[in-house]
């Protein structure tokens, strides 16, 4: 990564990093400025903690490239973040995306509490539209959850992070275990069954439950109790979902 005037950091000689927007398991997302097109973008930076085995490092790089490829197939969809480019810096990919001024659904509910039923229904319809478009292109998301749904400052609903999505013709994932977030994962996925569109819908149901009730449907005091609950028990009865309750169930 080059360092420009006044200490500015540049990626691929073109994208000037402006501010850190957030971080996740795959790395850090930055607000950046494209010096050629003179516009703001978002950059996802791959990061590795010390001691990551080479095989896992290679898988994480491939996962980032997979995210870019899948999201690129959905370019132009109003409820999917548009991928603009992938650039390499020091052998690692940086994903260049449209910048969507937003907060995640998780952050909104965490800070302000449950959302009104009509707003949750609006969010659900938008994400279903994105999942249907993905299915039509042979893509299953595999990690639908509140932190992967962004609500723009203009109200736009966007599904992000196709990093563990699979598509027709993808190689088998090499990392050990099941990829996804167990708190919102379908029971069959916890049993290592293949990812499906129906499993994505299960995860969306749990995500919308969280949005309207203020807590996940299978939340428990321990990780083991939570897994048992997903596999063997119905979700905690809904109190606030109203007309959405039957749909979510």
Report the principal-axis shape: globular
CATH-assigned homologous superfamily of the largest domain: Transferase(Phosphotransferase) domain 1
The CATH top-level class label of the largest domain: Mainly Alpha
H/E topology pattern? EEEEEHEEEHHEEEEHHHH
Whole-number mean pLDDT: 83
Could you explain how this protein is built, in words?
The chain folds into 2 domains: 2-97, Phosphorylase Kinase, domain 1 (2-Layer Sandwich); 102-248, Transferase(Phosphotransferase), domain 1. Helix 3 (117-136) packs antiparallel against helix 5. The N and C termini lie far apart (49 Å). Helix content is 33%, strand content 23%. Residues 168-178 have low confidence and may be disordered. By secondary structure, the chain is of the alpha+beta class. Strand 3 and strand 4 form a beta hairpin. The longest helix is centred in the N-terminal third of the chain and has 20 residues, at 54-73. The chain is globular and about 55 Å long.
